[in-house]
Amino acid sequence: MQLAAQESSPPVAPEEGTRLPSKRAIDSPAKSVKALLLKSWGTTSVWTDLKTNWSKYGKIPVTIDDSTYIDSDFTYQNLVSSKANVLVISNPAGNFKLYSPAEIAAVARYARKGHTVIGTFLVFQWSTTDNRGLAPVFGLRSKIDYNTTSVSISNQFKKKAQECLLKRIPGSWLSQGYAQTQTPLPSMSWSHNLAKAKAVAEVDSFLGVITLYKAATYTGVYVSNFPEYNGGTDDEQLLYNAVTCY
């Protein structure tokens, strides 16, 4: 995939769900946790590294499937058959990956069964790609606009809350991931656009954000920059935590 294709962006009603998700402490031995990347920008350095070097970040083994559905359509039954503990939606709009209404419904339904969903960077909108139907999975709003042109950030994040998601990460840290962000319009700020989600970290006065949405049966994690794209140790720790914490 070509960066140039991204126009300055990198390779950019409740039903069943009654079981509460298990809470995993990072330092407690546990069975392997499987993360499944759905339609996303493409393979990135951090997810690739976590396949073999997860033990640098905690005691819970993780397996990463970043090939089966990264470029493919999927159904709810595909998600069930995958037996994934965690779904990852990594910058899909940045590479013009459009989620159909059926796929959005499948993600929401699988989440409600007690599975964490992680989203990064240009999940909701980019250029003509509109995936805003995914926003409620993360406790965010689908009926507002998100930037469809490049928005650069300093990548200097600051913690706003103490959460397992940020364990082993400093109170202020410099992300080494791609330094752009998805941001609500026209305010260009997340501070009044969090809906049901909670900001646990922010950058540049809420131009960028990391959010948690603790629903009744699952947790949604959204990171508005692209930490897995050439990210550093803190970025990798963040994504390991997101996979194993909830």
Features:
disordered N terminus; 4 helices; 21% strand; 9-stranded mixed sheet; alpha/beta; single chain; two-stranded antiparallel sheet; 246 residues; Rossmann fold; globular
Concise structural overview:
With 246 residues, the chain is of the alpha/beta class. The protein has helices at residues 45-53, 76-82, 101-112, 233-244, and strands at residues 33-37, 62-65, 86-90, 116-120, 125-126, 129-130, 145-146, 156-159, 172-174, 184-185, 198-203, 208-214, 219-223.
If you had to describe this structure to a student in words, what would you say it looks like?
- With 246 residues, the chain is of the alpha/beta class.
- The protein has one domain: Class I glutamine amidotransferase (GATase) domain (Rossmann fold, 3-Layer(aba) Sandwich).
- 16% of the residues lie in helices and 21% in strands.
- It is built from 4 helices and 13 strands.
- Strand 12 and strand 13 form a beta hairpin.
- Helix 2 (76-82) crosses helix 3.
- It is globular.
- It starts with 32 loop residues before the first strand and ends with a helix.
